[in-house]
Amino acid sequence: MTNDDSIVFIVDDDIRIREALGELLASHGIAVCAFASAGAYVDAAKPKRPACLILDIELPDINGLDLQKQIADGDHPPIVFITGHGDIPSTVRAIKRGAVDFLTKPFSEAALMQAVHAAVAQDRKAQAERTGLDVLRQRYLGLTPREREVLPLVISGLLNKQAAAELGISEVTLQMHRRKVMHKMAAASLADLVRIAEKLQIPVTHSRRTGE
């Protein structure tokens, strides 16, 4: 399997491991960028490509599990841990925090490549979802202030006349704004608009007049 657009980051203080993993991954057509420490990895500029982070547990500057916790909220790829001293508590911690796999040295080529492919696929999906969300945000920013008032009323399930009453406008004007919202958000239906609003975490507005 060859993934020309993917990249694997390796963080291991043993140059022999870095070189061996680099050669193995290169033989599978996967680009590699290796680091001798966690700090070097964190400070490096990284390409926006589907990726995987192969991370050693024992590092000279910071424990691999601590690094996992440190970068959990950042834009970092899924992690495959490797270690020469695996234990059940460490494995459980790593997996609970989202690690794709936890491999104890020496591990097989098949086990490593299976974990790498799974991590890259996971990151590819996550990046696609982030890109899609960015597109939706840009569409939302293209709405006028009034259209942003109309949207939560529409997705709440209110009738046009109820939503219009909430805003103090005519039903015809409300319908006009509703059509523009649907068009600008590229929503094919009301259900589609509701799903878009959920992704953008737009709260539903219920009618104060009807008590709904």
From TrEMBL:
Pfam families: GerE, Response_reg. One of its GO terms (molecular function) is DNA binding. Residues 7-120 form the Response regulatory domain. The keyword Transcription applies. GO terms for biological process: phosphorelay signal transduction system; regulation of DNA-templated transcription. Residues 136-201 form the HTH luxR-type domain. Gene3D superfamilies: 3.40.50.2300, Winged helix-like DNA-binding domain superfamily/Winged helix DNA-binding domain. The modification 4-aspartylphosphate is found at residue 56. InterPro entries: CheY-like_superfamily, Sig_transdc_resp-reg_C-effctor, Sig_transdc_resp-reg_receiver, Tscrpt_reg_LuxR_C, WH-like_DNA-bd_sf. Keywords: DNA-binding, Phosphoprotein, Transcription, Transcription regulation, Two-component regulatory system. The keyword Transcription regulation applies. This is Response regulator transcription factor. It comes from Bradyrhizobium uaiense.
